[in-house]
């Protein structure tokens, strides 16, 4: 039996309220598939029974599980590769020149899911920064469960096979039972916290680079504008923003300018784009 229209409307409203993510009609099968494990975990006979109970008697923990299940996105190490190549080949050399006095970079992996992206960023910086430089990476996600997974820094064989070179696996991971765990020397550079990108963000030191990839596609235009403005407040004036391949700031927030970065594109605050530093698109 498929998800009823009323149950889908209830879930869509809950997810929209808690995360601003829009679940459009046609996602009923996805919602049901994602909620089957949740229903089993709480002892319900099925999704319909679980949602009926949740509507009769609201339960904060069960609501959080629903939101977590439906805001967990696909991820992998070095996903889509080109942004990471642009980071090491284009962005890091420019920032090294600009940050010679501090010799430290700060990077934010927003909506970092289970942690593959921030640890990929850590590997990229570890391999591209000059000796004597340091870096901090903050990974954030709306899902409490994903934050726990990221902090554990343990990944299955299937997960490490997706995107990691053999040499990187040997150098930056160690065996942990049937899994692989990121080594402490890399983990010490990475921290995680739960953040809702659509809500007012807590005060944080500004970032040199922000990865906000494959997130905006889930929001309506007004919410995209809110997120981009929130992000701009935490971005250094000469910082860099990477979005997903299907995402853009164009027509949403004119404070950003799209520039070429190697074989991909990135975004910078308009007043801070130096002439000749990157090509306009």
Automatic annotation (TrEMBL):
PROSITE patterns: CHER. It is an enzyme of class 2 (transferase). Its EC number is 2.1.1.80. One of its GO terms (biological process) is methylation. Keywords: Methyltransferase, S-adenosyl-L-methionine, Transferase. Residues 1-272 form the CheR-type methyltransferase domain. Gene3D superfamilies: Chemotaxis receptor methyltransferase CheR, N-terminal domain, Vaccinia Virus protein VP39. Signal peptide: none annotated. It comes from the Bacteria. Transmembrane segments: none annotated. It catalyses: L-glutamyl-[protein] + S-adenosyl-L-methionine = [protein]-L-glutamate 5-O-methyl ester + S-adenosyl-L-homocysteine. GO terms for molecular function: protein-glutamate O-methyltransferase activity. Pfam families: CheR (PF01739), CheR_N (PF03705). The keyword Ribonucleoprotein does not apply. InterPro entries: Bact_Chemotaxis_MeTrfase, CheR_C, CheR_MeTrfase, CheR_N, CheR_N_sf, SAM-dependent_MTases_sf. This is protein-glutamate O-methyltransferase.
């Amino acid at each position: 039996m498929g998800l009823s229209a009323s149950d889908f409307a209830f879930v869509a409203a809950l997810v929209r309220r808690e995360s601003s993510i829009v679940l459009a009609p046609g996602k009923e099968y996805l919602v049901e598939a994602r909620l089957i494990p949740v229903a089993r975990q709480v002892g319900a006979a099925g999704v319909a029974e679980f949602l009926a109970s949740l509507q009769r008697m609201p339960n904060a923990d069960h609501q959080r599980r629903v939101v977590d299940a439906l805001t967990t996105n696909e991820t992998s190490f070095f996903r889509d590769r080109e942004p990471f190549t642009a980071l090491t080949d284009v962005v890091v050399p420019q920032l090294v020149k600009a940050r010679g006095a501090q010799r430290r970079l700060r990077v934010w992996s927003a909506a970092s899911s289970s942690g593959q992206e921030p640890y990929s960023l850590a590997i990229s910086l570890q391999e591209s920064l000059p000796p004597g430089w340091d870096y901090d990476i903050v990974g954030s996600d709306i899902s409490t469960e994903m934050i726990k997974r990221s902090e554990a820094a343990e990944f299955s064989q299937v997960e490490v096979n997706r995107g990691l070179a053999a040499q990187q696996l040997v150098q930056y991971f160690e065996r942990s039972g049937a899994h692989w765990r990121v080594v402490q020397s890399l983990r010490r550079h990475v921290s995680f916290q739960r953040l809702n990108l659509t809500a007012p963000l807590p005060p944080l030191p500004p970032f040199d680079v922000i990865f906000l990839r494959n997130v905006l596609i889930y929001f309506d235009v007004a919410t995209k504008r809110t997120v981009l403005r929130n992000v701009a407040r935490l971005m250094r004036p000469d910082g860099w923003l990477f979005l997903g391949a299907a995402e853009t700031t164009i027509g949403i927030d004119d404070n950003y300018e799209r520039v070429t970065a190697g074989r991909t594109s990135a975004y910078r605050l308009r007043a801070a784009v130096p002439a000749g530093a990157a090509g306009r698109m």
